[in-house]
Every structure is written in C-alpha cells, then in structure tokens.
Amino acid sequence: MFRLYNRQSNCFQSGSGLNGYFPRCGVKTTACSDQLGESQPSRVTIESQHTPVGPSSNEFTIRSHTCGELRPANVGQSVTLCGWLEYSRMNKFFTLRDGYGTVQALIPEKDCHRFNLDGLPFESILQVQGTVRLRPEGQQNRAIPTGEIEVHVECLDVLNESKKRLPINVKDHNRAKENLRLEYRYIDLRNRDLQYNLRLRSRVIMKMRECMINDFGFVEVETPTLFRRTPGGAQEFVVPSRKPGHFYSLVQSPQQFKQLLMVAAIDRYFQIARCYRDESTRPDRQPEFTQLDIELSFTDREKVMALIEAVLQKSWPFEQQPLVGAFPRVTLAEAMERFGSDKPDVRFGYELQNVSSLLDLAVPEGVRKQDFRAYAVVIRAKEARQLPGSIKKTLDEIAKKSNFCRFTMSKVTPEWTVGPIVRLLGQSVTERLSEQLALKPEDVLLLGWGKHTYVQNMMGRVRLATYEILEERSAVPVRLPLAKNFLWVVDFPMFSENEETGTIESTHHPFTAPHPDDASKLATDTPALDELLNIRSLAYDLVWNGMEIGGGSIRIHRSDLQRRVLRDVLKIEHTHLEHLLNALESGCPPHGGFAIGLDRYMSLLCNAATIREVIAFPKSLDGKDPLSKAPVPISEEEKRIYHIQVVE
Question: I need a labelling partner for 191 at 20 to 30 A (CA). Which of 16, 384, 576, 610 fits?
C-alpha cells in the first residue's frame, strides 16, 4: 500500500484523485492550490519505507526477517537479522539497516560485557539474533515503521568489518558531491531514496511486463545491440571489429528490427530495450538508456494510444491514487499557440495570448511578414507584486538566446496608455492591447514578437521561468510532482527545415507515415517547400507535467512510399536500408508502435532531480563513468587486433 511521506511535517498523508476531468478534446490548465485534491508531499514513498516484504524476501538466506518488516505483531518472536551497522551508542543501543529499512537493537545490561561495539566502524556487516520487544512507553519513534519495537540481542556476529573512514557517508542530508557519490556508487546506493527508486523501478517494469504478456498477448523479443551505422538522427557509438576498416554501431533503438518483426508475423512485439546515443549528457539524458519498446500490426494511431494508456494505468504504482480515464490531447499547433512548447506543462495557467493582429511593429531582420507573430503573457497584480527586481534580467537573458525575436516587460500603471510603452507600440495599439488583455494597474505585461515558431518557443520559456520564480516565492501554488497531467501531442509535421543548413529532415524519423488527409501530397511529384512543411505525420508524443516520456508513430508499410520519402524528399542515400525496403515488398502489414523512456518516466515517478537517481550506475554529465573511469585507453596489442590507429 502506498502513502505519501512529507519530509517537512515528518508524517504520512493520504491523497485522493483528480478534482476535475479533462475532456479528450480539450486541455485545461489550473492555478488552484491543490490540483489533485491531495496534500503537497516533498516526495513519495511506501508505507514500509521500501518494497513491501513477503516470505520470499527471506527465502534462501540466513536471516528470518528484514530490518524493515518487524512490527508489534512480531513481539515475542525470535528473529535473525543481517545488515549494516548504521549507528551505535553507549555499547548498548544500535541501529541495523538493510535495503528494506532500519531497526533498533538493544543489548541487555547483563550482556553488555559479551559484545563490544565501541570502535566497530559504522557500515560493518552484522548478523543479529534476538527477541522482538515493545519499546518502553515514551520511547517509540513514530517516524519509522519499526519505531514501536526493538530487538533484544542474544547473539551478535561481525560478518565483515568495514574500514574506519569510508569516502562517503550514508545519510539523508549533507551528502557528498555527486561525482564522489558516483565514484563510490556501491556505498551511495545504500541511501534510502536510491533504494526506493531502484525497487520501485523494478516493480513498475515487472507490472509492465505482466501487462504486456498476460493481459494483451504481446511477445517479448530480444533484438541485436550490434548493428550497422544508420545515417541521420543521433550520433552512434562505433564498435570496431577484427576485419580491417569494418565497424558495428550500437543501436539508437530497435526501430528497424521491430518493423522487420511485423513482416515476420510477430504481430505484437515488445521488449525492455537498451539503447545508445553518443550525445552530450543532460540531466534527462544518458548515453545508454532503457525504453519500453512496443510495435504491433493491423492497428492505427487511436489504438496505439489507447494501448499505452492501458499499460501506464495497469503499471501505475500508487494504488490509492489510481490513474484512470483517457488522456487529453492537443495538436502540436495548439500546444505551441497556447503554451509555447511541444511538451507543455499544463499544471498552471499563464497561457500565451496571440496579439499579432494588434501590433504594427517593425518585423525583425530575417523574418517574412507572413511569419510574424506576437504573444503576450499577463501576470496579474496580486502575483506581480511578488516578482523580484531581478526578473527582468532573467527574462532578457532568455530573449537574447532567441533568434529573430524581440521582447519587452512592462508594468502597468494608471497612466500606462500614455506612458513610455507608447513610444514602442503607439497610442492606438497600446489602448487596444490594454482593452483586449483587460490590463489593470500593477499588472505586468510580458510581450514577445518575431518569427512564428521562434517567438512561440521564447514565450514558452518566459512563461515557465516566470512561474518558477513566483513558485519559489510562494506567490503561486506549487506544482505537484505527481499531478496526473498526462497529455498526448499529435499532428506533428512530417518534415522540418534544418535551421542551419536549410535541408529537409524528418521531424521524427524517416519511417513515419503521413497523415491520411495529407498523404495525397506525396503520391506523385515532390511538393513545393511550403506545402511539404505542412504535411502532417501520424506521430504522437506523450507528455507528463512538461516532460516528454515517450513517442511513437504509425509507420510507412509500402516500399514505394518509403523510397520516395528517402530518395525524393530527404535526399538520403538508402542502400544501407535495402534489407528494410525489401521487407516492405515482401508482405508487410500496416503497423505502428511506441517507446516509453523508462529512465525519464521513473525519475518523474520518484520525483528525482535527474534520471541518474533512478539508474544504478549512471554516467556523469560528461558521459564518463566515475566508478571505473571509462572510457580508458586500450593496449597496443588490442589496437593491433582491431586495426586501430590513434590520431591525435
């Protein structure tokens, strides 16, 4: 059973479900103080601190119980515990910790001479035998599940003494810097939150597997990791072979293999797939990552989206707050128009308001008249009074990083329509803007204008940064980390123009099928650029609280259309894809799929600051492994075997 744990109040709190229904065809934002009708925890945990313990957790071990499972119902029982020495005092009291929790042990006065804990380093491995007793009245610790009992020690063995000064300590607060923690990850993983994260991850993935196999009849198929280089997309890791000048690549995803499985009549495929991309590491990205990879035949977009909703609902770990109902959806155009993001956070309002028709400003250099747009975000007086003086500098920095855009911030005064803003906008525009936005004294206007998608993205970042600043100052409701604001984003363009090179690229990947209403535009000749960029695809992303947690599409299943997209539109040399093109000519059913990024999804479920907190042995920000120091040089003999010559 799951309950919410509030570190601030040091207590568990119950929660309830959604306080409003989001209709499938519309997305609403809310700025209420309690978006889910629940209290506001700093993190979520399980009632027993970690995974609920059953008899199987102690089978095949020398212990009878874990440190986290003893309760008043166990009073009088003789138990055997194994774990790490967490703390000791007066050679009489000590706490023992394992991956399931902690328990207090007491050495009776008459036996103190038999056991000497003085000088025994913390984190030493102990085996304790004793009897469970209730703690004396007034000495209970209600903050931990085992706080009503203690174990009276009858036998104590030191199974392995730890060295006296470990490089990092196991504690909840004032931890070492992350690089040091990653270097000694085997110690760091003893911390309660990391134990919780990994055990919850295991349970969620197991529920996903059970759901896919037992409920929906999917077949788990492992696909190769070593493959050939795929031009386009992310940079791949290259793996040398013993054949001179020939290399493998580590797969970015099982995309081609799962499409080939559809041709092979494995019509309902999934796997927990390891994927690799040689990209700069970010808080939400690792060079190696895990995804729930799914593909099925004879389906369409609506059915794939319904499948993913069902998988997430069945694997949702918080049983007291079930995930129910279909997720709302927006088109990409609506998401950008209202929120300035293709992965909008809809836990709060402050939506963009299109004021393009009101403004008659000079179009920034490099912007065509037809591409000009202007958007406003209004901060009402009550919240605006809480804005710090530094916010203008913060927002100006965002604007400076946005090409083809201009930005201004203006505080409304009683004389605003005749004040300095008039020099920028003009008297008539200022008055009409004030009327349309219902501006009042002490409101703050955030106004951006410029090239269509550029200004949308800029104002989306302005919107988010402003709310974060107000949130930090307790001027607006805090966004709950587990608010169930899942959102589908659909109708992505099939093709996009590269901002630097001007070449046409696939918005998702080149195997994505066009929207049926736009497919005729690709039937014969390659359309003109403007028409090409307006072709929608059958791609869809799933967003949760401002983070993309997965994406998928219906695929091209006809060889002639796939060749046309590769050859005529993307201008990609596609001899490396002949195996896939031949397969599409060999009886390929309509098919589509999806992939959930498990690292990112679990980081949100665990309310973790980065995905590194839900991965046992992650890479650091620069892509290195602090534990083993990889990547490392190889010997001259290994270079000879793999025909490698290092060029400085």
Answer: 16
Instruction: Tell me if 322 sits within 8 A of 316, measured CB to CB.
Output: yes
Q: How far apart are CA 402 and CA 408, in angstroms?
A: 13
- The pLDDT of residue 54 is 57
The closest of 406, 405, 407 to 466, measured between CA atoms, is: 407
Q: With beta carbons less than 8 A apart as the criterion, state whether 213 and 292 touch.
A: no
How large a percentage of the chain has pLDDT more than 90? 76
Crossing angle of helices 391-400 and 452-472, rounded to 10°: 150
Distance CA(527)–CA(523), nearest Å, equals: 10
DSSP single-letter state for residue 62 = S
Reference 445, options 391, 379, 355; nearest CA is 379
At CA 548, angle to CA 542 and CA 549, rounded to 5? 70
Q: What band does 30 get if pLDDT is binned at 50, 70 and 90?
A: low
> Could you report the per-residue pLDDT of 267-324, keeping only the tens digit for each?
999 999 999 999 876 667 899 999 999 999 999 999 999 999 999 999 999 999 999 9
d(CA 28, CA 349): 8
Q: Which two tokens stand for residue 258?
A: 């799962």
Which sign does the torsion angle of CA 73, 75, 78, 82 carry? positive
Give the helix, strand, coil percentages of the chain, each rounded to 5.
30, 25, 50
Hey, how many other C-beta atoms are within 10 angstroms of the C-beta on 26? 10
Helices (H), 98-252: 178-183, 185-188, 192-210
| CA atoms within a 13 Å half-sphere pointing along the CA-CB vector of 188 | 23
> How much is the pTM?
0.89
Closest CA to 50 of 186, 174, 146, 148: 146
For 493, list phi and psi in degrees, rounded to 5: -65, 145
Q: How far is CA 504 from CA 454, 566, 570, 572, in A?
A: 18, 11, 6, 10
What tokens does 83 get?
Answer: 């774990």
Handedness of CA 119, 122, 125, 129 (dihedral sign): positive
Q: Which two three-digit tokens encode residue 528? A: 């003109």
Query: Of how many residues is the chain composed?
Result: 648
Radius of gyration of the chain (CA): 29
Residue 26, pLDDT > 70, answer: no
Q: Tell me the pLDDT tens digit for each residue of 135-186.
A: 999 999 999 999 999 999 999 999 999 999 999 999 888 899 999 999 999 9
